[in-house]
Amino acid sequence: MQSIHDKFYDIYANMSKENTSSSLYDFLRIHALKRIKEVALEYGATSFTYAQLIEQIDKTAYAFAKSGVSKGDIVTVCLPDIPAFIFTIYALSKIGAIGAIVDRDESNSALKEKLKTSKSKILVVEYGRLDDLLFVLSQTKVSTVVLVKKEMNLSLVDKIQMVLRSEVKSISIAKHLAYDVPSNVAAFMWDDFIKKMTNMYGKDNDIVVKQEEFSGRDCVLFFYSGGAEGVVKTIMASSESINAVAQIFGCLYMEFENDEDKEIKSNVQHVADRFLSGLINSTPKDFVLAKHAQFCVGNTVVLYPPYDNGTFVGALIGTKASSVFAYPSTFIQMTKSASAAKTNFDFLRKVYSSGTVFNGVDKYEFLEFLKEKNSNVLLVETYGLSEAMAACVYCTSIMGVEKTIGIPLPKVIVKIIDSETMAEKTVGQKGEICVNTPGMMLGYFEDEGGTNRVIRRHRDGRKWIHTGDIGHIDEKGFIYFDGQQKNCIEINGVHVYIKEIEDAIRTVLGVEEVCIISLPDADNGTKLVAIVVPNDHYLLDSSKLEGLKESIRVECEMMFVKQRRPADIAFRACLPKNNFGAVDYDAIIKEEIANEQSLVKYDENATELDDIVDVN
Asked: Assuming Cys at both sites, which of 60, 155, 543, 568 could form a disulfide with 91, CB separation 3.0 to 4.6 Å?
C-alpha cells in the first residue's frame, strides 16, 4: 500500500543499498573502496583519505587483537573527538569486540562504575586524565590502559597553537608509567601500543573475524543514555541497527539540494560535504548520524582541534564546514556570538538539529541570522532516542508544516497509543509515541526488566519501542511532540501537558525561555510553577517584570482551564541545562524545593523572634 509520505522517499527507494548485517568495519570498508582517494577525515591541518582511514583502522585492530582482545570482549573508550576515537571504534568492530563509549567529561566515580559494570579489562583514555584515574584503576578489573594525547595526529602548526594556548600539560610520561600506574596494570602510550604489538607479532595486520562467527545482531557498542526511561542505562547496539539507520539517514542526506526553490529531487548528484559535529561524541546521535552515516555517503568528517576550547562556533568559523549537526541550544548561542556576528557564513549549506525540539521562535531567529550572514541553509530537524539509534522522524522546511517534528524515516513506523490500555489513538488524539524501527537496540545490558518495559511486542506481532514521549498525528500523517510522560501530570483529575503551557507562555512578548515544573502544594497536593527567563532589558526593572508577569497570567487565563494554569511565576537570569543543551528540569525542581524549605525555616525563625519580642 502506498504511504502518504512516499513522495519524500524517492532517493531512498531508488538507491542501491548495502547489506546492513555486516560489521561496522565491513560496512565502512565497502563504501570506502568506492572513493579511496577522497578525504574521509580532517583534524586541524591533518587529513586522511578513505584508503588511509582503513589503513589506520587495520593497524589498530591488529594491535588490539594481538594484545588479547577477542570477539565479545568489552573495551571502554573515553576519548575526545580525535582520530584515535574513530580508529578504535571501527577496529574493535573488525575483531568482533564491543566498544563501551563513555563521555570524555565523565566524572571519575561514574567512569569507575561503568568500568566495573562492563567488566572492561582495557581502557582507552585521554592521557590528560591519567592523574585523576590512578585511584580509580585499582578498583576495577582494568589490566591495560592505552593513553592517547589529544595532540596526536595534529600538524606541527596545530601543536604549536596548543602549546601557546596552554592545552598541553607538562607531565613526565616516564614518571607516570613507571611509578604511578598500579603494578597490575600495563600502561601504553598509543603510538607505543601500536608499534609494540606490530613489531612483536610481525607486519601482517589483516585481522578478520570468520564470517560464520559473526552476526549482524551481535552487540558491537555500548551507549550510556537515559532516553526512554529517564535514567542512565547501558544500551546495547548491534551493527545491523547502526548500519540500517546510517544507511537510511545517509540516503536522506542526499535527498535535498539547497537550491532556491527547495524542491525535492529524485536524481541528485551528490557533492561531498565537509561535515562538522557539535554533538557529544559518546552518543548515538554523533556516531551513527554525524560519523558513520557521513562516511557511508562519502562526506568528509571534520574534527576540530582542542585548542578551539571546545567552542562549536569557533570550530565552524575555523573549519568552514559546509554541513553541521548540533543541538538547538548550540545554534541559539551562535546567534549571540560576537565572532559569529562578524562572519560571512556563505560556506554553510545544511544544518542538522537534534537532541530537543527546536522552538519555533528560536528557529526563526536562527535562520534569519544566517540569512543576514549570506547563508540560505536547509534546516533538517531529527527526532529520536538512543534506544532507536537516535533517528526515527525528520522534518524540513520543504514539508511546509509548522510545529511538527515531521514524518517517519523510511522503514520506520510510528503510532500513538494509550499507555494503559495499549489501544491505538485516532487522528489528533494525544498519547505515547511508539516506534518500530530497524535501528532498535538489542536491550539494556544486564537489565531484562528495563528492556521489557521499553521494548514490547504488540498484537500486530511487531516489536515497538515505548519512547515515554507524548505526541499526536494529524490527518496528513505528520507527527507532533507534546511533551514527555514524566512531564504529563494530573491535577484534580485534569491531565496537564507541560509543553503545551510552555509553548503558550513563549508567545508572550518579553519571554526569552520558560519551563513549567510541578511542586508539592499543601492545599491541592500539586501546583504548577512557571520559571521564566525574561529578555535582558526586563531583568533590572521591577515594574517591567511585574508587567510581564501579568501578561503571562492573562495569556494562561485565555488559553487554559484553572488546573492548567501556573499557580506561581518566578523569574531567573538563566535555566540550568544538561549535557545535551536541554533544560534540566530535575535540577530546577531540586533548587525550587530547597528555596521553599529555606523560606519556611526563615518564617519559623521570624515567628520565634516575634514571640520573644512580644513576651518582653
From this structure: 60
